[in-house]
Amino acid sequence: MKVSRIFGIVIRCTLQAMKRSKMSGKSPPTRTRRAALTDLLLAYIVIAALAVTFYVYFITSATQHVNAIQISRKAYQKDFLRRQRNTNKLANQWGDNSVLYNIGQNRQGFGFPNGNGNIKELSAVEKDLMPVESYLGDETRPQSCDNCFKYNVKTVIQGKSCLLSWASKHIDVLVLITSAPGNIDRRNAVRETWLSPYQNNTSNVRYLFLLGLSEYMASDALIQQENTVHGDILQGDFLEDYHNLTYKTLMGMTWAVHYCKEVKLIIKVDDDVWLNIPTLLGLLHYKRIPFALGGKCTYNSAPARSPDSKWYASFRSYPEDHYPPFCAGPGYVLSPKTAANILEVSKNVPYFHLEDVYIGMCIQKLKQRIQTIHGFMSFKPPGHLCHLRHNSIVLIHEVSLNDMRLAFGNRCGGNVHNTLLGKMRHKMWA
What we know:
The protein is an alpha/beta fold.
């Protein structure tokens, strides 16, 4: 029963009781008086029931909120103890606790934009390398500059993605996957699902996971072991932080330009996406790329001015009302030539912490265009998980590890399933 209806019943009962109790100049009969008292009692019971219901609802909500906080704290403590056990295990193995526990002079902790000593010692002119909020001063970030971005990020771990079989010039796609040191479960899920046909990293598809430095050197030691096993990690000497994502992307492009010169297409993705590489290869062979950057693109986006937003940009960091056209960071494609041009023009584009917007700034500086490609999706489509493997889909963002494994393990309808919308492939270039 709706709340408004209950209140209507209460008001009606109260009015009836008052009407019955009013007998012009005469004392109401005993029967009428009893009926009026019964109606009033019913009204009070209903009001009390409503009050108790709302009270229980709010108490339950508050309890659930407190329990959620306690669960998150327990999960954090559990993760901390797990990290500590891994650290002790490595310490016993290597016999040197000081190496594992020493964070070093070049680690500044989370929340600081840079972890390497080179960036820490920037001159006043080179401060534009960092986000405006990361240093003291009243300057407003300019739209362009003259050779002010001194990109000097170095790599501390280098995978073998393009170093093996270098004599082969038939590399079609290089997949650059932005990840974080703690996301080993995501990397393993990607390796076991849509990357599994290419795990030798010597075929026509190569891939690299792009990482920054962990706050704890023990975690970086584990990353080194992971790379020893898989050989697919590229780690830079900057601290892992959301505001450093632009460094991470430029690091991947630098690697591609220097070591994967023969690749035909580069796609940068996050580690929580589902990527249909066969569909991507089909697009590549169907038509030449007629643009500099492609994906799920936006052309008139306004900066988020709320400090609570993940994509917050202050007026100092970006004084304009709208961003230049850019393609969403979870996944976009570009050619090696475009990557080289971005690296070159970035010297004159002051650093900005939102990497997809920054790449859009560089494309605008180059006076080139971006293009929306149908098949780049922000969320998993409803229905059966086989939809993820449909050849009309290139990329889907925010796919859980469980859905990745289930979609990859399901026996979908093969050609019969794909022919439902297979003819849409030639329409994917908007």
